Amino acid sequence: MATIYLNKTNLFYNLQKISSINPNIIAVIKDNAYGHGIISISKLLKEYGIKKVCVRNIDEANLVRGFFEEILIFNPPTNRGAINFSYTINSLTQLKKNRHPYIHLKIDTGFRRNGILENELDEALDLMKKKEFELRGVFSHFCCADEFGCDTFIQYDKFLKIKEKIVKFCKESKLKIPYFHIANSAALNKLPHTLDYVRPGIAIYGGIDGYKPVMSLEADVVSVRVLDEKEGCGYNKTFMSDEKIKISTLDVGYADGIPYFRNGCKLKDTIALGKISMDYMIVKGEFKKVIIFDDVKEFVKNFDTITYDILVKMSPRIKRKIIETNNSFWA
Ligand SMILES: *Cc1c(COP(=O)(O)O)cnc(C)c1O
User: How many Å lie between the centroid of ligand 1 and the Cα of residue 107?
Assistant: First the structure.
């Protein structure tokens, strides 16, 4: 059976590295912890000392409600939830419908996807006060933090101005000052100050440069056979061998979340041949087990996509095993 190994040593390394920039971390564990497994990752984050996380929806929040002091839901319902849940306010309309007492205001500083606009801020603050919501946090999200260019700093400056305005409002209204957060992974080492909390996702899982990979996927061999010279293998025989070789069939396919490929794919220690099947793929050589990838930053080069996309689609059906290692093999 194929197994996903979660490298605790590397996860902790990444958390340590983020902590050296700002120790106040709201860990993003949305979408099954970027495909790693939300329960396994939550246990490890809790063990490390993480107190706050972000999830996608109420279902994910309910899964991890026992693990953390605060769970920020990016796309929440309108009805009341648990006391350690915080609901993101994505629009004025939603703020009007909301009945949960603990909120974070999301500000649209330029992403143009979600959040309160600058010219809606006064109305939002008045509404929040009138409805007696507790404003736990205020945040915004960068659209271009992984590029060079000035968008990030324009958004950042806008957010600082909004921060001042909100702090002033809260002081005048004798309300608790919320905490402010804006830095995703790519912004961690770009900003002059990362504000009260940082909000990284992919860096925790080692899907960008400078951080160590947490997930590796290992497959079992189902059968081994010989492919003769001038013989093809797999659907439509897109691979034709020009020599007699041994081939092994692995027990993972595109149904498990591996991106579809038509003409082979580079794995860690061998190559996949021809087309990937739903539940299988064929590789060159004779093996008992094959590591499909142990660093998604390398594996992604096979495909026209991003590391996030590969990680997040790894099937929840594959069993997860936590490992600890200082072996440089994993570095
Ligand atoms: C997904 C997400 C993050 C994390 O982004 P990374 O690029 O993975 O660090 C942070 N904030 C919001 C609002 C998000 O949706």
Answer: 14
* Cβ–Cβ < 8 Å for 38, 32: yes
90 lines ligand 1 (CB under 6 A): no
| Whether 34 is catalytic | no
Q: Is 141 in the pocket of ligand 1 (CB under 6 A)?
A: yes
CATH level 3 topology of 7-198: TIM Barrel (3.20.20)
Average pLDDT, the chain: 97
Class of domain 215-330: mainly beta
Q: Is 207 in the pocket of ligand 1 (CB under 6 A)?
A: no
pLDDT score of 328 more than 80:
no
Q: Which residue is catalytic, options 131, 230, 235, 260?
A: 235
Helices 8-21 + 38-48 axis angle, to 10: 50
The verdict on the CB of residue 140 being under 6 Å from ligand 1 is no
Q: Report how far residue 64's alpha carbon sits from residue 55's, in angstroms, rounded to the nearest whole number.
A: 9
Helix axis angle, 121-130 to 151-172, nearest 10°: 40
Supply the pTM of this predicted model.
0.96
pLDDT grade for 330, boundaries at 50, 70 and 90? very low
Between CA 299 and CA 204 the distance in angstroms is 18
Model confidence over 20-57: pLDDT tens digits?
A: 999 999 999 999 999 999 999 999 999 999 999 999 99
Domain with CATH 2.40.37.10 in the chain: 215-330
